[in-house]
């Protein structure tokens, strides 16, 4: 069977938790279009973002590299000039590439610069700054006001999401005969939850359920989680009063605006899917979200320096008519970093050495597991803001059951998600898990070295619980690890000889 695919539609949302999608087990969340996509394709249960923050997550998705390798490891810090995004790489192979929606990789503020990067079709480029520039000053203010959704005068045509969809439909109608890679990147359901009022009215009486994670007292958790949760100095754990306050006295979390906007963006996605079915029925369709958000789990809100599933385990669905796979549930661990090499593999484009993930092509076609591990990181929430905990260097590894989290500046975590799916019980010092913990730790250190993590060093290995850690030395591993980006750069030179390097990773 010819498994090549020459048309790809990549759809993503912002801050959409996995449990905000109906097909992932929450019947109260009305997302029929995404649910239908899963019913006709493959739904991934253990898919993870590269970093649970908007820009770094996108850096991983759209460069195929870890955020730490791109320069964009925090919001408002653009990717480096020597980092090629996948639109440029694909367009250089003759594929028509278009990006519509939130980009967030140019180093500007939340809305972006309004400028089309090289490699994307400038006629379809449309970021959030472009949207705001279409509005009057009064409309701009209204578009950022969370109360606007309560106005019965707001209709879909006013929203960023609807205008993104219109452009995507136009692209598919005009260019469906070409080889193409189309990205439709919604800001919804991210606040300010801009959507017509009737969407939120349907969730007025709904509260998100309380889970065991809401009752995590944080007694054996990292110090920065306690600070984030608002514990006073000297408190070792959250009190019952604090937990009751965080969980609305056990009644759940009402957020009709968020949930209403969630259903609204599903409807916009449905408009794209309907057009795709008409004009590009043979296209590979990929849907995902950049990260999730906390709603009081572990005493935390929004997103930031934590590796809990609420913000790292994201929805991911793929559908392609030629696969003839319907309602398949994939339980293998996969990463956002795997999507770029998967797209290149199916489209017949050589996979660059700079990509850090692995193609899922064989897994998709044969169900054979691709990854032994997936890796997640955190550096900073935003370079502009002093808050959100400041710099918090975190690296994590997950093997499909066990998750190790190394919080460089505080203390570490280990969870057995089979026995403890809500990640309440920290096993980092549990002797019976020592072998599992150290195996994960070795894999994490190896990946930091392989990926040329600029923050790597002996301090990641020398943790208080690692009894057999190598004695710290200034020399550390003694390796040189140069990059290989020869599609766009000359082969790098060996410092000692001035000649082209033979091996990129070698003893120094």
From TrEMBL:
This is Sulfatase-like hydrolase/transferase. InterPro entries: Alkaline_phosphatase_core_sf, Sulfatase_N. Residues 7-349 form the Sulfatase N-terminal domain. It comes from Holtiella tumoricola. GO terms for cellular component: cytoplasm. PANTHER family: IDURONATE 2-SULFATASE. GO terms for molecular function: metal ion binding; sulfuric ester hydrolase activity. Keywords: Hydrolase, Metal-binding.
